[in-house]
Amino acid sequence: MRHYPINLNLKGRLVVVVGGGRVAARKAARLVGAGARVLVVAPVVEESLAALAAQERVLHRCRTYQPGDLAGATLVFAATSEPAVNREVAREAGELNILVDCVDLSEDGDFVTPAVLEQGDLLITVSTGGASPSLSKRIVDQLRPQFGPEYGEAVALLSAVREKLLTEKVGNAYNDTVFAALAALDLPALIKNGQRDAIDQILLKLSAAGAAPGSVGAGKEDPS
Ligand SMILES: C[C@@]1(CC(=O)O)c2cc3[nH]c(cc4nc(cc5[nH]c(cc(n2)[C@H]1CCC(=O)O)[C@@](C)(CC(=O)O)[C@@H]5CCC(=O)O)C(CC(=O)O)=C4CCC(=O)O)c(CCC(=O)O)c3CC(=O)O
Ligand SMILES: NC(=O)C1=CN([C@@H]2O[C@H](COP(=O)(O)OP(=O)(O)OC[C@H]3O[C@@H](n4cnc5c(N)ncnc54)[C@H](O)[C@@H]3O)[C@@H](O)[C@H]2O)C=CC1
User: Fold this and answer.
1) Contact residues for 144 (Cβ-Cβ < 8 A; gap 6+)
2) Which end of the chain is more exposed for a tag (fewer CB within 10 A), N or C?
3) ipTM surpasses 0.90
4) Using a 6 Å CB cutoff, which residues line ligand 1?
């Protein structure tokens, strides 16, 4: 394995994207989705980036890259169409100890971005270590039909149950039993088949030892 997999929480962090074409736009849109503060440095930006800038969801510095543009960044994307500029950006990032993704030559960078399948908080990512981005994309496209919106709902429900159990100071052994029982269920299938009453019954049964599911039920009515 050439890369170490990690899912970053970039909420409120400054990320600088140098370049404003199709590739920069793809990276910037996902960064905005993750709650990062995004600065785009480019003399020309494509339509979707211009729209994000107009909505003040990214900051656009409308000129070519200059040394100093990376100040304060947590991450950097060198995403121009000029290899020499991308190298220069990578060099400055290295000096500042900021991790950089060089979109035209992964060997010059510190990280690469994977193809992504997202359903709520479920994140399935595929990478080939830079060998074949289009294969990464194809694998995600093949997985997409198997992981519909019910997976997002299942994750949200599991998260609520988990938070409730962990904040109710129920014994660890009890929690372990409940988590194991929940993990053994095919919750996404139950959700997909509309079996919300069945899920609420299961949650009530699991909570019999003391942790009422309360507001975490799957049905429209609060089961508690
Ligand atoms: C190393 C990496 C660096 C990085 O960008 O982080 C990188 C590098 C390069 N990509 C190139 C080409 C293409 N990239 C795509 C698409 C995607 N590229 C993505 C990631 C990555 N691309 C990282 C490694 C990912 C991995 O490990 O597999 C995806 C998965 C995610 C994303 O962009 O965030 C996204 C899918 C988005 C989606 O799901 O929709 C397409 C297809 C398309 O655009 O439809 C093509 C054209 C077809 C082809 O060439 O395969 C070139 C050659 C450029 C040239 O010819 O000059 C380089 C440079 C090089 O190879 O060195
Ligand atoms: N990683 C990936 O997913 C992919 C990477 N690529 C690589 O990424 C490069 C960029 O691709 P696109 O976005 O499609 O190119 P593009 O031609 O659409 O956009 C290039 C952008 O770079 C900006 N730019 C040029 N010189 C600059 C400078 N000195 N300072 C700041 N910005 C500058 C331009 O204003 C423009 O916004 C390609 O040249 C290719 O090598 C291409 C396809 C996919």
Assistant:
1) 117
2) N
3) yes
4) 26-27, 101, 103-106, 112-115, 127-130, 132-134, 136-137, 140
| C-beta of residue 190 within 8 angstroms of C-beta of residue 203 | no
How does strand 122-126 pair with strand 115-119?
antiparallel
Residue type, 177: T
Sign of CA dihedral 179, 181, 182, 184: positive
How remote is the CA of residue 70 from the centroid of ligand 2, in Å?
A: 17
Q: Do 28 and 17 touch, CB atoms closer than 8 A? A: yes
Q: Say how far apart CA 20 and CA 113 lie, in whole Å.
A: 17
Q: Which of 100, 98, 94 has the alpha carbon at shortest distance from 112?
A: 100
Neighbours of 89 (CB within 10 A): 29
Q: Among 16, 66, 80, 82, which residue has the most ligand 2 atoms within 8 Å of its CB, making it the best to mutate?
A: 80
For a ligand 2 pocket test, name from 30, 45, 85, 103 the mutation site with the most ligand atoms within 8 angstroms of its C-beta: 103
User: Mean pLDDT for the chain?
Assistant: 90
| 109's tokens | 């960078």
For 168, the 3-state DSSP assignment is coil
Write the pLDDT tens digit of every residue in 23-68. 999 999 999 999 999 999 999 999 999 999 999 999 999 999 999 9
Ligand 2 site, residue 62, Cβ cutoff 6 A: no
Number of helical H runs and strand E runs in the chain = 8, 7
